[in-house]
């Protein structure tokens, strides 16, 4: 429902914008900073940021050349912000010496420089809980020294106008601060001010300390991460130095890893036939995506950096015997440079990676082939199209392309063509038949491994919501695992993991983006939380959803059939990624869509085609989560799915003070409507969503936004009515409440959110789930 998505609108807008930037003060002359006894909350600062959507960057350096570089950099950034401001911010900038008191009071500020070079920043740092000395930055009397040490602070109340936030980037050395700032701008564009935690301290490129502030804007001792130590060189081989972070891997276990990597390195060198001096490579090992993300702002399983010849890899039981070849990417980049074809660029390193996604790229290419989900050469060799395609499918198909071209051309021609090959349409057409033959032959060589089918139990659980966007409190974090453990203790046997994408305009088709930012519902977080849930014996439901701007998926409606065709193509490429991800990582259920009311009721054939394609790729159970009412009651393709998914927000009463009997009777009426669907299709029905906020009278409009009330008794009454009503109903095979947060402290004790966590409804869940 539209209103249910409204809260997501604010959250996702803030994510796209980044949670940051703030206000300022004058320059040459010191400004008297005012104090306010009533401190703003984070929510209030975010709201002011969201309302204003404009950031004034105040920069100041002692070096005139750095001032000029800053000016040019920010002018370029400001121009790009004027060209496209959708859900973004306008970037303004001023040199600190030109800022006045009005600028400071009326703007959201981002302050850049050192205290000596930026007088506005010098005034503002007096009001934050950090100290400086001649060596470096102090936090709670702990010193973090070094010329390259940089402090990044975000979303802090302005001392001049605490209804607005300010951010800053500072350190001891002008050059290091500028270089760091320039890197942020180059990498993140208009989201340069976004970061995962309230404050972060860097030493060079590495994030060594980070943490949050408490409600009084003091350092929160429970949310401080210090990675300034525990980063040890534990082994050196011919080409690599292996660094273990926070005891990620025992020294004795790194030997076999090093031997394997060195063997592949020699294989690549022999294959290419190049000898000569190579730089030494640093291979950094982390024990979790969370710690890798907290230290580097990158939670991917592995990545590489050509600037310092480093590889950064997570090695743990979740990724046991699963390597994706990023060290090969770095080596080949050194040897061959960059290819013009993105497919060759990504595929060549994987060609040398035996355990890509455990089974190897050839096995997974066979699965894509037999299910009809491969890419044509014209797709695979279209760099622009690849930008909207599943990274998993790209990597698998690209490695297969390399193998095909080596078989077709031979090694000498392939290596000659590698850097600059941009085939013509005619050349692609000539190769296409051979490509299809190659894929068909590969499919026969790598038959599907037998996997036991799963018989689903009665599903008892929650939609497990990625409520934390600071890496340490979202999917894949230790806090998320704690939240899963609590759900298990409550009697849950199932979790639904809910990654999001979005569509900007409900009437215009566009490619759906994949969540990749650290702190988002990215693949690594999904994989980790699914793995932890499976370790606990829980059923895993992957339930990707679409956020539709200020609307909801039910209002997505293209204006003509041509656009509908594009919409379904884009959507299939997006949901296919999650089908492949779920197949690779052994998840139990895939929900192929959520609440696309107009798309499902007008384009049955497209959904049937989609289901067939996904079922060939993913061998778990398939469902669809329909919106209550018209969509749920009129979908025609329920027969194609393993069970029917209902997102149930049927009102239970219009009255302020209904008796329990009235609530029960009204739910009986709802059940009649549900049973009609069951009688028609004879498919089990699962509540893929149902929920009530802890507010006054949530039975009136369950999907609606909450108000300022807090009423856990009313929430509990609704939970009790639903549990009673579905008990022992032959058509009902489970209930997944909306929702449970990814960290247990979410919104504090007395919040009006849907979650029953730490409220009276929690006891009701325990009673029914554990009976």
Question: Can you walk me through this structure?
Answer:
By secondary structure, the protein is of the alpha/beta class. Helix content is 39%, strand content 19%. The longest helix has 24 residues. About 4% of the residues have low confidence.
Structure keywords:
771 residues; alpha/beta; eight-stranded parallel β-barrel; 25 helices
Put the structure in a nutshell.
The chain has 771 residues and is of the alpha/beta class. The chain is built from 25 helices and 26 strands.
SSE blueprint and pairings:
Layout lengths: L5 H12 L24 H11 L1 E7 L3 H20 L6 E6 L5 H6 L1 E6 L5 H6 L6 E2 L3 E4 L2 E4 L3 E9 L7 E7 L2 H15 L10 E5 L2 E8 L5 E8 L4 E6 L3 E6 L8 H19 L8 E6 L2 H8 L5 E4 L4 E5 L11 H11 L5 H10 L9 H10 L6 H4 L2 H4 L4 H19 L1 H7 L7 H21 L13 E7 L12 H12 L4 E4 L2 E3 L20 H13 L3 E4 L2 E3 L13 H24 L4 E6 L2 H6 L1 H14 L3 E7 L2 H5 L9 E5 L11 H22 L3 E6 L21 H15 L5 E10 L18 H10 L2
Parallel strand pairs: 1-2, 1-3, 3-8, 13-14, 14-16, 17-18, 17-26, 18-20, 19-21, 20-22, 22-23, 23-24, 24-25, 25-26
Antiparallel strand pairs: 4-5, 5-6, 7-8, 7-9, 9-10, 10-11, 12-13, 15-16
Instruction: Give the overall average pLDDT.
Output: 91
End-to-end CA span: 32 Å
Let me know the largest β-sheet. Answer: 8 strands, mixed
Task: Name the assembly state.
Answer: single chain
| Low-confidence region ranges | 9-36, 82-86
Rounded radius of gyration (Å): 27 Å
Strand content: 15-25%
Count of DSSP-assigned helices: 25
Tell me the strand order in the biggest sheet: 2-1-3-8-7-9-10-11
Content-based structural category: alpha/beta
Molecular shape: globular
The portion of residues assigned to helices is 25-40%
Instruction: Give the number of DSSP strands.
Output: 26
């Amino acid at each position: 429902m539209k209103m249910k998505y409204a809260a997501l609108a604010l959250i996702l807008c803030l994510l796209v914008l980044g949670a940051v930037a703030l206000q300022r003060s004058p320059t040459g002359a010191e400004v008297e900073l005012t104090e306010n006894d009533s401190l703003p909350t984070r929510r209030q600062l975010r709201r002011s940021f969201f309302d204003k959507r404009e950031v004034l960057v105040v920069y100041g350096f002692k070096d005139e050349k750095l001032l000029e570089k800053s000016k040019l950099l920010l002018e370029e950034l400001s121009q790009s912000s004027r060209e496209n401001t959708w859900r973004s911010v306008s970037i303004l900038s001023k040199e600190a010496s030109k800022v006045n008191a009005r600028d400071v009071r009326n703007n959201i500020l981002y302050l850049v420089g050192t205290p000596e070079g930026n007088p506005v920043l010098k005034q503002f740092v007096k009001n934050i809980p950090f100290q400086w000395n001649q060596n470096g930055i102090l936090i709670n009397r702990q010193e973090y020294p070094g010329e390259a040490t940089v402090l990044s602070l975000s979303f802090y109340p302005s001392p001049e106008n605490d209804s607005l936030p300010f951010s800053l980037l500072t350190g001891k050395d002008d050059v290091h601060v500028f270089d760091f700032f320039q890197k942020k701008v180059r990498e993140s564009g208009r989201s340069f001010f976004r970061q995962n935690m309230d404050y972060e301290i860097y030493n060079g490129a590495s994030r060594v300390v980070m943490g949050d502030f408490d409600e009084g804007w003091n350092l929160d001792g429970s949310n401080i991460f210090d990675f300034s130590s525990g980063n040890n060189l534990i082994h050196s081989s011919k080409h690599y130095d292996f660094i273990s972070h926070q005891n990620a891997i025992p020294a004795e276990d790194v030997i076999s890893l090093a031997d394997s990597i060195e063997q592949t390195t020699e294989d690549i060198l022999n294959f290419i036939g190049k000898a000569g001096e190579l730089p030494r490579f640093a291979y950094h090992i982390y024990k979790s995506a969370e710690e890798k993300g907290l230290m580097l702002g990158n939670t991917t399983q592995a990545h590489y950096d050509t600037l310092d010849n480093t590889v950064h890899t997570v090695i743990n039981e979740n990724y046991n015997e699963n390597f994706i070849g990023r060290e090969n990417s770095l080596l080949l980049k050194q040897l061959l440079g960059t290819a013009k074809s993105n497919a060759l660029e990504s595929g060549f390193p994987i060609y040398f990676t035996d355990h890509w996604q455990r089974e190897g790229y050839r096995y997974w290419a066979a699965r894509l082939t037999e299910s009809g989900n491969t890419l044509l050469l014209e797709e695979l060799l279209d760099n622009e199209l690849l930008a909207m395609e599943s990274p998993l499918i790209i990597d698998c198909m690209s490695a297969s392309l390399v193998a095909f071209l080596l078989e077709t051309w031979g090694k000498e021609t392939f290596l000659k063509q590698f850097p600059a090959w941009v085939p013509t349409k005619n050349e692609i057409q000539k190769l296409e038949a051979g490509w299809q033959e190659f894929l068909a032959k590969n499919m026969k060589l790598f038959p599907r491994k037998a996997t036991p089918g799963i018989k689903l139990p009665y599903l008892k659980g929650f939609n497990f919501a990625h409520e934390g966007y600071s890496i340490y409190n979202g999917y894949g974090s230790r806090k998320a695992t704690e939240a899963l453990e609590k759900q298990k203790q409550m009697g849950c046997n199932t979790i639904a993991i809910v990654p999001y994408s979005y569509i900007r305009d409900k009437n215009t088709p566009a490619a759906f983006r994949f969540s990749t930012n650290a702190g988002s519902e990215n693949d690594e977080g999904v994989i980790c939380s699914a793995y932890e849930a499976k370790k606990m014996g829980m059923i895993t439901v992957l339930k990707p959803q679409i956020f539709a701007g200020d609307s909801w998926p039910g209002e997505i409606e293209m204006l003509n059939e041509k656009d509908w065709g594009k919409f379904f193509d884009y959507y299939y490429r997006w949901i296919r990624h999650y089908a492949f991800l779920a197949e690779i990582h052994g998840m139990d259920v895939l929900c192929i869509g959520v609440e696309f009311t107009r798309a499902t009721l007008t384009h049955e054939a497209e959904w049937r085609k989609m289901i067939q394609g996904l079922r060939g790729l993913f061998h778990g159970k398939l469902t669809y989560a329909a919106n209550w009412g018209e969509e749920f009651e009129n979908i025609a393709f329920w027969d194609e799915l393993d069970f029917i998914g209902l997102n149930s927000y049927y009102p239970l009463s219009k009255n302020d003070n209904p008796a329990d009997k009235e609530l029960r009777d009204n739910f009986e009426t709802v059940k009649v409507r549900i049973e009609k669907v069951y009688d028609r299709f004879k498919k089990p029905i699962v509540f893929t969503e149902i929920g009530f906020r802890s507010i006054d009278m949530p039975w009136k409009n369950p999907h609606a936004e909450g108000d300022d009330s807090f009423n856990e008794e009313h929430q509990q009454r609704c939970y009790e009515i639903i549990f009673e009503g579905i008990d022992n109903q032959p058509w009902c095979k489970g209930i997944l409440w909306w929702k449970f947060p990814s960290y247990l402290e979410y919104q504090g004790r007395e919040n009006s959110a849907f979650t029953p966590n730490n409220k009276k409804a929690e006891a009701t869940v325990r009673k029914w789930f554990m009976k």
